[in-house]
Design brief:
With about 400 residues, the protein is of the alpha/beta class. It has a domain at about 260-385: abc- transporter (atp binding component) like domain (Coagulation Factor XIII, Chain A, domain 1), CATH 2.70.50.60. The protein contains eight helices and 19 strands. Strands 6-7-8-4-9-10 form a six-stranded mixed beta sheet, sandwiched between helices. A hairpin with a 3-residue loop joins strand 17 (about 350-360) and strand 18 (about 360-370). Helix 3 (about 115-125) crosses helix 4 and helix 4 (about 130-145) crosses helix 5.
Length: about 400
């Protein structure tokens, strides 16, 4: 096995992994007798679990990269290697410039210190002197929204307060490389949005960002490139829209980032199926503004209905309806039918949307995303012929 090494001489903000390999031993410490301890006997454990298997990636200074994959795919291990927390068994890894990691935000806190004291402690760990921390302390406290709690020992903090303080500190350290692992999922929605705005400011200032998240919407809003990991290997590395589609296919959710069917009393006409397709007729959940979209809807009637009404709504992330349309469907002799709603040029602002369909109550919801390239909401909408 080749010896692992640290890459030096990288540009500020540059990230490189070359044939990075790492495995972890999984061993449950069983209760042992005194005799067993004295004799040094230990039951053999399972074989090591590979976390990274020859991962090779280069991220240029200023790039914003999302890292997605199943649980155990190697995402967190990759960030820990880049942060210098976990060594490689073989291969090379390196980050240029100051690296700030938002992995376990409270890991470096002294629980008996106040929040304010921990700001100075964390700043010192990142190489800032007291005067540099003093320049940032007010902004950090304001960002954290902890108010009077900033002077209380952090051992009394909730997990959300830990996240607020940890992110506020890390977000004001002028990082060349910012490594983020799922920490935004802990705070409330308002704080998450503020964190994303702060990340956007750091991106605009030239920071390189690597974001690990199961939230496809956050990846889409922040990142211009996506790396899909599976089993410790790179399965895809490319543009965000294509990367998220690859990820959804890998997870078996390519028909939408999320789909729900509300329960309740049986209806005369039920929406049996909703599927989003792109201009080439392929299932999709991420679309670019200006592209074609088709919404295919399957219906089933529990009793005879001559002209059932179908309602379709596009809703923004805050639940507001941005577009609504209705049409009359045609059902076959068996009470089933299909129809499609086609958009020749999708013109929505970038972000996450829910598409709700019902006949007539809105009972079926599918999630999709629009990348950051944005234009006006106006678009050309046409209802297609019923498909059989």
């Amino acid at each position: 096995m080749r010896r692992a090494s640290l890459i030096e001489g990288l540009e500020p903000g540059e990230i490189v992994l070359r044939d990075a390999t790492r495995a972890f031993n999984v061993r449950a410490d069983q209760a042992r007798t005194l005799k067993g301890v004295l004799l040094g006997r230990r039951e053999p454990g399972p074989p090591p679990v590979p976390a990274l298997q020859g991962v090779t990636v280069r991220i240029a200074p200023g790039e914003t990269v999302g890292m997605v994959g199943r649980n155990g795919a190697g995402k967190t291990s990759t960030l820990r290697v880049l942060a210098g927390i976990v060594p490689l068994e073989s291969g090379e890894a390196g980050c240029g410039g100051r690296v700030v990691s938002l992995l376990e935000l409270a890991a470096g806190f002294s629980r008996d210190f106040s929040g304010r004291d921990n700001v100075y402690l964390q700043g010192a760990l990142y190489g800032l002197d007291r005067s540099q921390i003093n320049e940032r302390i007010d902004k950090i406290i304001e960002f954290s929204e902890l108010d009077s709690f900033i002077d209380i020992p952090v051992k009394t903090y909730s997990s959300g307060m830990f996240v607020r303080l940890g992110f506020a500190i890390a977000a004001h350290l002028d990082a060349d490389v910012l490594l983020i692992d799922e920490v935004l999922a802990v705070g409330d929605e308002g704080f998450q949005r503020k964190c994303l705005r702060r990340i956007s400011e750091q991106i605009a200032a030239g920071s390189t960002v690597v974001l690990v998240s199961h939230d496809a919407g956050a990846i889409e809003r922040v990142c211009e490139r996506v790396i899909v990991l599976d089993g410790g290997k790179v399965e895809f590395d490319g543009p965000t829209a294509e990367g998220l589609l690859h990820y959804h296919r890998l997870m078996g959710t390519e028909r939408g980032g999320g789909e729900s069917l509300r329960g309740g009393a049986p209806r005369t006409v039920n929406v049996e199926d909703v599927e989003l397709r792109d201009g080439a007729g392929r299932p999709a959940s991420v679309f670019r503004s200006g592209e074609a979209m088709q919404v295919r809807i399957g219906l089933r009637a529990t009793e005879h209905v001559s002209e059932p009404q179908v309602v379709l709504e596009f809703r923004s992330q805050d639940g507001a309806t941005v577009f609504r349309t209705e049409t009359t469907a045609e059902l076959g002799p068996d009470g089933t039918g299909e129809l499609a709603y086609e958009v020749a040029q999708l013109r929505l602002l970038g972000g996450d949307y829910d598409l709700a369909v019902g006949a007539p109550e809105l009972d079926r919801t599918v999630h999709f995303s629009i990348p950051r390239e944005t234009v006006d909401l106006d678009g050309s909408w046409q209802v297609s012929e019923r498909t059989r």
